[in-house]
């Protein structure tokens, strides 16, 4: 498909904002994926291209946290492997799904993500006793990894919530380890997407550069200020972009509901 320079620039700007938000609280994909779909990119290509830019952005934030010593690689080696395996399974499943189904299903998932961000509990920055053992934590992380490989938006927030509520980590340490896990899931998924030829390289590259810059700025802000005040913006933007997707008369979900 033909992408004009102004569309590429606009999507790169969205990637920067999403990267900043993603490093603070997760959920940046709630902005980038709907924006890609709204630009007319087919669902699998949109998810693949979103995964490419997200990999670079999350990787930048992960390195920023690692340099500051916020990541316990020994403790999270097995959870990282679980995340990788789960994501590879999700990405493979995505390539097997009918694109028409995805066009109808994605708006429902985006609405569900918005509801999650409204209802999710507030998180503390104080470390607590872990409620899940290593096996339980790995199983939960593998499930989230599968979701990330298949779809993606909200994965960072899912990981952060899990690590705070069940892993016993404080908010900043949970965000740091989320970047490690999310980088792992992104790498696994994007490798399968590249092998299948689904990535739009020019657009993905431009968004990747912007995402790295946004994630770096967001990681520094997270370490200094925490991730407060971001969720309302995610909810509003996600719902607005979902409305944009459903405004297309050709959307299968709209056709099914309204005839």
TrEMBL record:
The chain crosses the membrane at residues 7-25, 76-95, 101-120, 132-150, 156-176, 188-209, 229-246. It holds the Pfam family TauE. Keywords: Cell membrane, Membrane, Transmembrane, Transmembrane helix, Transport. The keyword RNA-binding does not apply. It is found in: Cell membrane. InterPro entries: TM_pro_TauE-like (IPR002781), TSUP (IPR052017). It is a multi-pass membrane protein. Its main location: membrane. Signal peptide: none annotated. Belongs to the 4-toluene sulfonate uptake permease (TSUP) (TC 2.A.102) family. This is Probable membrane transporter protein.
